[in-house]
């Protein structure tokens, strides 16, 4: 992957530690029922489902459908970036602090046909101050299938008030916007 230095933890960054209350071995569920990436109530969303086995990485699945096309029969690159972004967001969700994507890098290695199930693995490679460094790869149809997309990101920790200030409400304060109800 063509990595910028911005998404690589500085030399000497210690291995991150999982949060003691991270959800492990069970479906992570959506962080918000109407989220475009993971929300079951979103009519055209990606409906990503995921599990973590160690509290620092996530295995997510996303099946590419008709609504996700760019070129005929092929997934749109922006949709694939969204799926990666969401699966990265699930990793920082395990850290049990609010984060947002600051920077997201994607390399597209293979076309992804409609009907493909992408197996997306994301992991946290380090936490420095408010920044969490993350990596992703998406494979075609099987855990050992060919890699179609790689990603890397910096997520930035924000106060919970970020979502209320900029989104108009969270945590059930605005009807239809409950977070983890
Ligand atoms: C009542 C309960 C409420 C709970 C609510 C929880 C609900 C939500 C739950 C879970 C959400 C998960 C959702 C998953 C969905 C997938 C994730 C998304 O798509 S998120 C949407 C897209 N992203 C944005 O909308 C960010 C927009 N940008 C911003 O808001 C700001 O720019 C922000 C917060 C990223 C940074 O702004 P600053 O002013 O707070 O902080 P500064 O000082 O600029 O940066 C802090 C550090 O981060 C680095 N940084 C910032 N941006 C960077 C970048 N683009 N690349 C690399 N580093 C960056 C800076 O260099 C700085 O580093 P140094 O501490 O100095 O070492």
UniProtKB/TrEMBL annotation:
Keyword terms: Apoptosis, Cell membrane, Cell projection, Cytoplasm, Fatty acid metabolism, Hydrolase, Lipid metabolism, Membrane, Transit peptide
Membrane topology: Peripheral membrane protein
SUPFAM superfamilies per the UniProt record, alphabetical: Thioesterase/thiol ester dehydrase-isomerase (SSF54637)
Location of this chain's protein in the cell: Cell projection, Ruffle membrane; Cytoplasm; Membrane
Catalytic activity: (9Z)-octadecenoyl-CoA + H2O = (9Z)-octadecenoate + CoA + H(+); (5Z,8Z,11Z,14Z)-eicosatetraenoyl-CoA + H2O = (5Z,8Z,11Z,14Z)-eicosatetraenoate + CoA + H(+); hexadecanoyl-CoA + H2O = hexadecanoate + CoA + H(+); octanoyl-CoA + H2O = octanoate + CoA + H(+)
The EC number(s) this enzyme carries: 3.1.2.2
Stored InterPro entries: HotDog_dom_sf (IPR029069), THEM4/THEM5_acyl-CoA_thioest (IPR052365), Thioestr_dom (IPR006683)
Residue ranges constituting the Thioesterase domain according to the UniProt record: 73-139
Gene3D superfamilies: Hotdog Thioesterase (3.10.129.10)
Annotated region (Disordered), positions in chain: 1-24
Family annotation (PANTHER family): ACYL-COENZYME A THIOESTERASE THEM4 (PTHR12418)
Homology family: Belongs to the THEM4/THEM5 thioesterase family.
The protein, known as: Acyl-coenzyme A thioesterase THEM4
Organism whose genome encodes this protein: Actinomadura parmotrematis
Lineage, uppermost ranks: Bacteria, Bacillati, Actinomycetota, Actinomycetes, Streptosporangiales
């Amino acid at each position: 992957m063509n990595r910028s230095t911005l998404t690589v933890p500085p030399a000497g960054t210690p291995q991150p530690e999982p949060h003691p209350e991270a959800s492990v071995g069970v479906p992570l569920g959506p962080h918000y029922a109407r989220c475009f990436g993971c929300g079951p109530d979103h009519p055209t969303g990606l409906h990503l489902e995921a599990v973590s086995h160690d509290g620092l990485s996530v295995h997510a699945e996303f099946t590419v459908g008709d609504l996700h096309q760019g070129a005929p029969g092929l997934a749109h690159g922006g949709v694939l970036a969204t799926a990666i972004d969401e699966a990265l967001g699930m990793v920082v969700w395990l850290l049990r602090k609010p984060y947002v994507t600051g920077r997201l890098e994607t390399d597209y290695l293979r076309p992804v046909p409609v009907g493909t199930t992408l197996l997306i693995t994301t992991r946290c490679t380090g936490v420095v101050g408010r920044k969490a460094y993350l990596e992703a790869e998406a494979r075609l149809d099987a855990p050992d299938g060919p890699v179609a997309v790689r990603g890397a990101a910096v997520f930035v920790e924000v106060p919970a008030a970020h979502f209320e200030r900029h989104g108009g409400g969270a945590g059930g304060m605005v009807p239809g916007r409950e977070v983890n109800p």
